[in-house]
């Protein structure tokens, strides 16, 4: 209400909202043709064994090469796609690209590592989700444990029969991991309810750990607890060597972050693999 007196402020705010709405609409208008025109591309960010400096896997991350706007990042469109349901097509597009990649490497007798794909919460309330997961893994005859589904803690905690869904995905030999672990409100419950292969400690914990002994203790105990339960731990967002050193000192050997590699196009990933 105060802002009404400041006319320039109102104009600014108005333009800002209009602009946001225009971009939102534009993205929705373009999404389908963008998929048809192959503007979506899967990047790969390796996960490292920090002690051995070796690649233990990778995460598939979507990019949109808009011929006019340039590259669009997931933060520009994932929420929009979740609202309008297009995320289902995008996530299955990514999964299929990953399957094709693994299949071609296997056929060529080349080295493969497990690849993880991000799965929106939206799938968990879709009737045919598990069926489609089964169809795609069979279509490409992907060996057991080569594809990991990353679901955020918040997504998992919203759905009642999530255990049932994830048990079925596990029976299809997908690996299951919790993404952004520690940012939701039910971390401990999740460890108990869900058939987990891995957790990914959220990047914000690592940022906080630089200045907070308490946060370092929390990370240490989470790692210890996960390992005691036979769950792999990967820490996200490792940017500095001292963060890697800290993680290794508490027994967390697996890390992902700009210190090792940014997400990169498939050809670059194959080269370093
Ligand atoms: P996420 O799954 O937690 O992925 C990690 C994000 O952190 C990626 O951002 C990655 O580029 C970034 N990152 C990795 N290491 C570092 C680091 O050392 N420092 C910093 N500052 N950032 C780092 P990206 O690719 O922009 O993706 C953002 C989010 O968008 C993802 O978070 C994921 O939630 C979502 N997303 C990306 N691709 C897909 C997809 O295909 N499907 C769905 N449903 N969501 C996706
Ligand atoms: Mg992820
Ligand atoms: Mg994450
Ligand atoms: Mg994160």
Automatic annotation (TrEMBL):
GO terms for molecular function: cyclic-guanylate-specific phosphodiesterase activity. It comes from the Bacteria. Keywords: Membrane, Transmembrane, Transmembrane helix. The keyword Cell division does not apply. Residues 24-273 form the EAL domain. The keyword RNA-binding does not apply. This is Protein containing diguanylate cyclase (GGDEF) domain. It comes from Flexilinea flocculi.
């Amino acid at each position: 209400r105060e802002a009404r007196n400041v006319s320039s402020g109102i104009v600014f705010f108005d333009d800002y909202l209009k602009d946001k709405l225009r971009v939102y609409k534009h993205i929705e208008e373009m999404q389908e043709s963008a998929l048809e025109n192959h503007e979506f591309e899967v990047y790969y960010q390796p996960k490292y064994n920090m002690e051995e400096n070796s690649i233990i896997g990778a995460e598939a991350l979507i990019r949109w090469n808009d011929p006019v706007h340039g590259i669009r990042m997931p933060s520009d469109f994932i929420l929009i796609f979740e609202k309008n349901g297009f995320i289902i097509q995008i996530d299955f597009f990514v999964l299929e690209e990953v399957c094709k990649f693994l299949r071609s490497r296997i056929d060529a007798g080349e080295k493969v590592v497990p690849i993880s794909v991000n799965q929106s919460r939206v799938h968990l309330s879709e009737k045919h989700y598990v069926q489609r997961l089964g169809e795609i893994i069979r279509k490409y005859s992907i060996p057991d444990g080569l594809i990991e589904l990353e679901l955020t803690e918040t997504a998992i905690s919203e759905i009642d029969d999530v255990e049932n869904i994830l048990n079925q995905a596990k029976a299809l030999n997908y690996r299951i991991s919790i993404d952004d672990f520690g940012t939701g409100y039910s971390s401990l419950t999740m460890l108990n309810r869900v058939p987990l292969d891995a957790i990914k400690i959220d990047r914000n914990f690592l940022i906080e750990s630089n200045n907070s002994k308490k946060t370092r203790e929390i990370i240490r105990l989470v790692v210890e607890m996960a390992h005691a339960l036979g769950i792999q731990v990967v820490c996200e967002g490792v940017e500095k060597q001292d963060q890697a050193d800290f993680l290794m000192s508490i027994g967390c050997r697996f890390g992902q972050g700009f210190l090792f590699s940014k997400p990169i196009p498939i050809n670059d990933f194959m080269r370093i693999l």
